[in-house]
Design a protein that fits this description.
The complex is a heterodimer of chains A (169) and B (122).
Chain A lengths: L6 H15 L4 E2 L3 E3 L8 E9 L1 E9 L1 H12 L8 H19 L8 E3 L3 E4 L13 E8 L2 E11 L1 H15 L1
Antiparallel strand pairs in A: 1-7, 2-7, 3-4, 3-5, 3-6, 4-8, 7-8
Helix pairs in contact in A: 1-3
Chain B lengths: L1 E5 L3 H13 L4 E5 L2 H11 L3 E4 L8 H11 L5 E5 L4 H10 L3 E4 L4 H16 L1
Parallel strand pairs in B: 1-2, 1-3, 3-4, 4-5
Helix pairs in contact in B: 1-5, 2-3
The chains are: A alpha+beta (169), B alpha/beta (122).
Chain lengths: 169, 122
């Protein structure tokens, strides 16, 4: 995967957590994930379309998710409260939206409204042939991961190559 | 002052309501998308609107274009993750008066609300 799709998410997750929750985030080394199952029990999912294709998942263990939601909303709540999923979805929305603004070049990228899945051993379908990169993150509220399966759409790759060739001609 | 908050996230509306309360604004109506907002503006007659961009049913930009067909004066602040320059220009051309990029600090949102209302009063 093009590292230009990874770096913005590293900056974005730190920006969102520090701005909205005053919560520092330590990020580990990205790695390629081979299995379709998400890492933890709570997933905030955002689809990306336009010049890119794919999706981004913020995957959290339940205890981390409960602590983060309490900090973000200022209210302790259980996972079956509809506001819990709303808060996880808004975090995923801000991380993805902020990251797409940092993508290199003038890409036209749209993000979907967030979906949230709660439950152990669930999977999130990803586009075929798009590798999933996992970035581990650690905070005072616990650990979580960002799973990024995003690639440039093939026809826009060809257009970019044409534009580069024209510019160099 | 009557203020309409349009965002599909209740969490985000609550954060914005908290900032408004600190500024002394408590007459707040909420809408969960652009269509819901269009249904409410007639009865509520907002004097300030904060609107998200990406929402189901009707997005914020479509709401702004629809709303501005009949109301040129009520100040609108777009509060969104859309940070690309082209998107900001698109929103301003549609009739948005000010722009706040998520994530934001309470101080920044408060400042944008205050300056938007000050320009309207001038």
């Amino acid at each position: 995967m093009d590292p230009a799709f990874i770096t913005p998410f590293i900056a974005s997750v730190q920006n969102v957590f520090s701005t909205m929750m005053q919560l520092p985030v330590q990020l580990g080394d990205p790695s390629v994930k081979m299995t379709p199952a998400v890492s933890y029990d709570v997933s905030g999912i955002i689809g990306m379309s336009g010049d890119v294709v794919g999706n981004v998942v913020i995957s959290l263990p339940m205890p981390t998710a409960l602590r983060l939601v309490a900090l973000f909303t200022g209210t302790e709540m259980k996972a079956d409260n509809p506001d819990f999923a709303d808060a996880i979805g808004e975090l995923a929305n801000m991380i993805s939206g902020n990251a797409k603004g940092m993508f290199a070049g003038k890409k036209r990228v749209q993000i979907s409204c967030p979906s949230v899945v709660i439950g152990s051993n669930h999977t999130v379908a990803r586009p075929k042939d798009v590798p999933c990169i996992v970035i581990p993150a650690s905070t005072d509220c616990g650990q979580f991961v960002i799973e990024i399966a995003v690639a440039q759409r093939e026809n826009t790759q060809a257009q970019s190559a044409d534009a580069t060739a024209e510019a160099n001609a | 002052m009557r203020i309409l908050l349009i965002d599909d996230s209740k969490t985000m509306r609550n954060i914005q309501k908290s900032v408004l309360a600190q500024l002394g604004h408590t007459t707040v109506e909420e809408a969960c998308d652009g269509q819901d907002a269009l249904n409410k503006v007639g009865a509520f007659q907002p004097e300030l609107i904060l609107v998200d961009w990406n929402m189901p049913n009707m997005d914020g930009l479509t709401f702004v274009k629809n709303f501005r067909q009949t109301n040129k004066n009520t100040p609108l602040i777009m509060v969104t993750t859309e940070s690309e320059k082209a998107r900001v220009i698109e929103a301003i051309k549609a009739g948005v008066n000010n722009y706040v990029i998520k994530p934001f600090t309470p101080d920044l949102l408060s400042q944008r609300i205050t300056e938007t209302l000050a320009k309207r009063a001038a």
